[in-house]
Amino acid sequence: MNNGFEEDVIQEELQDTESERAKGQMLKGSAWMTVGSILSRILGALYIIPWRLILGASLFPLANSLYTQGYNIYSFALIVAVAGIPSAISKQVAHYNALNEYGVGVQIYKKGLSLAILMGIISALILWVAAPILTNGDKNVIPVIHSLAWAVLVIPTMSLTRGFFQGYNNMAPSAISQFVEQLARVIYMLLSAFLVLKVMHGSWVTAVSQSTFAACIGAIFGFLVLVWFYWKNRNYYQGLIKNSNNKLSVPTNQLYCEIISQATPFIILGAGVTIFSLIDQFTFFHIMRFATNFSEEVLQINYAIFAGNANKLTMIVVSLASSIGITVVPLLSEAFTKKNKKALKDSFSNALVLFEFVMIPASLGMVAIAGPLNRTFYGTANMDFSSNVLAFSSIESIPIGLFVVVAAIMQGVSQNKKAVKLFAYGTLAKFVTQYPLVYLFGAFGTLMSTMIGFFLATWLMIRALKHEFGIEKNMLQYESVQIIFYSIVMYFVALVSVYGLNWFFSLFTTPFSSIISLIVTGLASIFGAIVYAYFMLKTGLAEQVLGKRVGRLKAKFNIK
């Protein structure tokens, strides 16, 4: 009897240690992916400033709309081409690594590689041939789609290799290659736009086509970084294979079946945001033509503002959630494989709290600085409308980001089919509410229907997870209330800072220039971040969420 009790205690201690290790890995992985993703997204937004100057005030709105329409179609094609294989590979590699069968994980990567190459070729051909059908009435979209088809050839292989590294909970290669990919893309698109328009005096459509072809250039450089990482650490991976159990032999057909069965749900859920964007793209113009007498140029500008301008900036915030989601999948898969219920339950709760800790202040902060932030990137054209759309989109990023994290959790614990089914309910809600909301509220209606769709899908997923595995409800409620409260305090500090700085600069210059708006954005963001960080350290919440090392900052700044 006593021995049984001691065994239970030892088992609980082992599970506690496992949970702490998983939390540490999640934080470390999230940190790498967050840095890589944030830097990539910032680069992906910053290019707008010089790109806008190269195109000029008259061409930029049209070019931006064309770019956005092409990219939405490309994003969906790319998700199909990648076919969820990288995330599936990450999950399956982590599964077999947890069984000390590293050789099987390498086999899965090799089989997945052949699938990725095949899917890339098929998807690129379909995208090229189907380009005239996907124009939505604008023939200028055709060369843009053709230029993006080349990227679809390369990116599946690169994404698959990232999934292999992530299966080892090694997020650094993915993060660094992501940044290099974006850097190469931005350099090429700005250089090509300048040469086409300023040196060769070519067409703005050609300039946009070259700007989108930059995705292929970026993918090549990103993949080369991953090859370098593997070559540098090849002895380490070979050593793991040699020291594996090597008792498990999985037939080739079974490997393919595992990859495809795991990948299919990742396609649908990974394409969630893109699917909603495509619904907007193929319904917004038709509804607005029926509801208003706006000219086609005005409709293009409106579309570019909510689908392009605001989306580029809010995706910086959503990328924070993506980083958490990418990190949590292999950790959950490992805990699920080991049947460690406590680690599973803690990982759910830790992922949700980490999401709130990062996303809520980031989203509310962007609402506060929406005016100067929008002017920094897009100038003063339609600035009131654009700023309001950006503010609303920033709120919208919370349910989108939560969906990304919760969908990743569902997949990490093999609730794939259920996740797809619940997402379908959210998509149906988007369809049902799209027409009346766009009819009544225009561009804001698309954002409202998106929020409704993602809220419904996410709420249903969280309810299913709670029923199946349980969630630390008390911890979530306590920490959530604090995070929301101090995020609102931070919001008001940033908002007051924006108004105060605008008033100060208005005494001797216009506060609406791009340079002054950049200064206001930077200072207001810093003031808000300092306030939020202070309260998180003072209450001890930062230490609870991010780990004990954060406590050093508390001592360093003498916060009691």
Topology:
Blueprint: H1 2-46, H2 48-55, H3 60-82, H4 85-98, H5 102-130, H6 141-167, H7 172-199, H8 204-232, H9 234-242, H10 252-270, H11 272-291, H12 296-337, H13 341-368, H14 370-378, H15 383-412, H16 416-441, H17 443-468, H18 473-506, H19 514-538, H20 541-546, H21 551-556
Helix pairs in contact: 1-7, 1-12, 1-13, 2-7, 3-5, 3-6, 3-8, 3-11, 3-12, 4-5, 4-6, 4-10, 4-12, 5-6, 5-10, 6-8, 7-8, 10-16, 11-12, 11-16, 12-13, 12-15, 13-15, 13-18, 14-15, 14-19, 15-17, 16-17, 18-19
Give a verbal description of the structure.
The two termini are 47 Å apart. Helices cover 86% and strands 0% of the residues. The chain contains 21 helices and no strands. It has helices at 2-46, 48-55, 60-82, 85-98, 102-130, 141-167, 172-199, 204-232, 234-242, 252-270, 272-291, 296-337, 341-368, 370-378, 383-412, 416-441, 443-468, 473-506, 514-538, 541-546, 551-556. It is globular, with a radius of gyration of 24 Å. The chain has 560 residues and is mainly alpha-helical. The model is unreliable at 5-16 and 22-27 (pLDDT under 50).
